[in-house]
Amino acid sequence: MKKFILSAVAVFSLTFAQAQETGENPGFDTGDMFISGSVGYSTTKNPDDSKSSNFNIIPRFGYFVNDFFAVGAQLGYSKNTAEDSRGRDTVDNSTFEVGVFGRYYLLPGKRFTPYGELNLGYGHTKDIFDNKVNGLNIGFMPGVSYFLSNNFAIEASVGILGYSSAKPDSDGAEATKRFDFGIDTNDINFGLIYKF
């Protein structure tokens, strides 16, 4: 089903893009600004009546300092909850994040352009027991952007090379450190950009 939905989105996007008749060249130029982001929600109900849900929203803003390079900032909020078969909460985590990023576009004035993104973020998580964790992450991911019209583009990023550190907010706690590297179908992220 996931492959069918992704295929349908790709076919619709390409068809829509080919139908666009404009006098301007799509793509990015110095001084362009854009907004993008992602929203996600999922819920799972198990045979034993336990259930879980996940929600996240991440708005982003970017500015092109020259034709090839954009800098930007993002905010993020996510919430994960779970209940056991008797309806008792077993997980209730809320995370707030703030971050900055830089992107280098290989073909900025073109309808289709690959890019590389370096990002740095800070996050704060609070769980059901009022425990708090502070985290720092840095990552690099490759992606592609395709303009559907002069102002709208779809983008996809694949894989990640990253490092993160999470430390409980308590005396004497030690940080948990993690290194990620991989290209996997679970690491494919899609988004929509509005350029202005």
Automatic annotation (TrEMBL):
A Pfam family annotated for this UniProt entry: OMP_b-brl
Keyword presence, Signal: yes
Gene3D superfamilies, per the entry: 2.40.160.20
Signal peptide: 1-19
The entry's keywords: Signal
Domain Outer membrane protein beta-barrel: 8-196
Protein name: Porin family protein
